[in-house]
Amino acid sequence: MRHEERIAQELSISPRQVTATVALLDEGATVPFISRYRKEVTGSLDDLQVAGVRDRIQQLRDLDTRREAILKSIKEQEKLTPELEKRINEAETMTALEDLYLPYKPKRKTKASVAKEKGLEPLAIKILDQGNFDTQTEASQFIDSEKGVESVEEALQGARDIIAETINEDAEARQKIRELFIKKGIISSKVLKSKEKEADAQKYKDYFEWDEPINKIPSHRLLAIRRGEKEGFLSMNISPEEEEAIDILERQFVKANSEASGHVKAAIKDCYKRLMSVSIETEVRMESKKKADEEAIVVFAENLKQLLMAAPLGQKAVMAIDPGFRTGCKVVCLDKQGKLLEFTAIYPNEPQKDLARAGETVKHLVEKHQIEAIAIGNGTASRETESFVKKLGLPASVIVAMVNESGASIYSASEVARDEFPDEDVTVRGSVSIGRRMMDPLAELVKIDAKSIGVGQYQHDVDQNALKKSLDDVVMACVNNVGVELNTASKQLLTYVSGLGPQIADNIVKFRNENGPFDSREALKKVPRLGDKAFEQAAGFLRIEGAKNPLDKSAVHPERYKTVEQMAKDAQASVRDLMTKAELRKQINLNQYVNDEVGLPTLKDIMDELDRPGRDPRDQFEAVQFQEGVNEITDLKQGMSLPGVVTNITKFGAFVDIGVHQDGLVHISHLSNSFVSDPTQVVKLGQKVTVKVLEVDVARKRISLSMKSDAPQVKRSEKKTHPKKQQEYKPKEEKVPDGDLQAKLAMLKGKFGK
User: Fold this and answer.
1) Is residue 450 part of a domain?
2) Residue of 578, 742, 627, 753 lying closest to 681 (CA atoms)
């Protein structure tokens, strides 16, 4: 089956759509550009489908590259038969390919290779045939002191070593044992006795003695056990029942009930214990890790998407406060474009508690810079600082809101921050980041490594290349979905615009600084190294407010300006009139403008843009208000109902900020009165929720919350703490069949939307 046909089958689209999409990708088109501006070519595939085609064609091409290398290697060994070549060409997975190549793969010295050097291979072949003969007599013919075979038993042992390796390299046998591991393997973890009493080991206490089927363990639990193993506190192994595995191999290789068959049985046991179980366990560990990584990355990507697409305050003058106690609160004032105007420090909290002077400073700065909103970081002393600001009697029009400051300290010490503010210290830079996050979360958060934002699940344990690729896709999708104001965007934001990248983004900023703001999209072509292809890919996602051509502030691509101009001409109006007068747009018959290059999908997109040019798809900004008087974890009581905001979503539940400097956990079983298999079905990052306090563990800084309307209080005596019993209370997780790309795509669509 051709690659295009296979991908089409897996994604439930037509081969023509796959072929067209692959051609665009090979020409250098990006996923956002293809899904937005090439709908006629692809048959209106969305960004997830385009990304699915991109990833799958790369996997299949990698498979082909490996196939060619294997065929070349076996051919050079002069061992390539027509039958073997056919099997290699028909192999559909990398695992199947490697199984076929294993007998021909160059090896280091093994027991079997040593036995072969001693001339024992003919004996091994005869024993494996299991004819009716005296094995002792047969083996005695291979005694040869010069070759190192001193006895009958040495000869028989060497033959068994060869048989064991032969069985281990049999593709069919490996697949059977692999399936047994996957279907019936048990993952077991145990604490290393020498580490059991160490304080750092206690976070893995639930896994000190844990057994669970490998095909049922959720991703977060597997990653937790693997981290415990990596840190040296736990040992972990995966295995099915040994007897069942050996029985499977015996059914395949034991052909008789002869004396030779006894040696084959002995070789099978040796093969399984010494070779096959070890290598297959390694494979299953890697595959289960890969699946756990994929699940964790999907959660991380969805959280990041929601965070980046959080409602922006917009262009308003903002005061940002990074709260603190002993070191005071760092205050910065920003203009409507996020430019730093002034900074200072105030000390309204303990131990100084200079309320009068701090209040005068804040009021003065609010009036001086005509501040419209105050952003307060949600770290140490945040609630106390918020309470202080709200009591100052500032104009009611001034918005006061808490802002998640995760990653602000990472930004403040970064090269990006040093470039922006070379003369300011890290505290000022961090405060600026807090303020800008309120104005536009997307524009500010792209400057920070996504792993530092604090919305992931075991993000440092998963495959870092796969994580980066996924997060880059999310950031690019969000940036291009919102669009970028060309004359104010940072280099970091421009980097994620379709077709640009770091170097061209840097060139744009330098050109802008040297020549002033761009007055048109066309002027982009003057930027060094920004050629026709980059312009084609990027132009539609860049906005220029106040440009002479009003289409330059819309998502209409320059390649379609002539179409809009023709529409305006036919309506006897200007393009600007067409964008501002709905009655003119209603008169347009789109079918009149369909041609070989432009179809109805693009024309409908153009009309949507003319209706609301440069629209922002994000929600309206809404400040979070926490419960007055509940500032610390010690203020919490069982049964309290409190307002909060969702800060992180995992497979096992959602974390909620309730204003006490420690997020609480709403376990998946407490997200709703109805059964929930996926937390993202119920909550979104940044969502305002009302929660009930179930339990507070001050010593461990753990808060258990519920969103159920009839949530009961949990008494310590009722808690289910034994890990093996906990399995009874874990909701069944959504499963996606291995290799079922369409099912995975459907699951992703449920998470990301179209």
Assistant:
1) no
2) 753
